[in-house]
Amino acid sequence: MNKVGFIGLGASNFELLKYVRNMYPEWQCFVSEQEKIRGEYRSYLEKEGILFEEGGHTERILESDFFILSPGVSPTSEIGQNIISTGKPMTTELEFSLKELKKRKNGVFIGVTGTNGKTTTTTMLGHIMKEKGLKVFVGGNIGVPLATVIKSDYDFYVLEVSSFQLNWFNSKEPLFHLSSILNVAEDHLDYHGSFEEYLSQKKKIVKLTRGYSILRTELVDALDEAKNGHVIPFSIDGEGLLSLKDGIMKFHKAQLDLSTYIKTRHNRENALVAIALSHFLGISVFDAFEKLASYRYPEHRLMEVEFMEDIKYIDDSKATNAHAVVKALENFQPSKVVLILAGKGKNESYSELLPKLKELKKTIIIGDSLGLLKKLDHNINYEIVDNMKQAVEKAHKAAFPGDIVLFSPGGSSFDKYRSYKERGADFINEVKKLRKTVGTIK
Question: Is 369 buried (19+), middle (13-18) or exposed (0-12) by CB count in 10 A?
Answer without folding.
Answer: middle
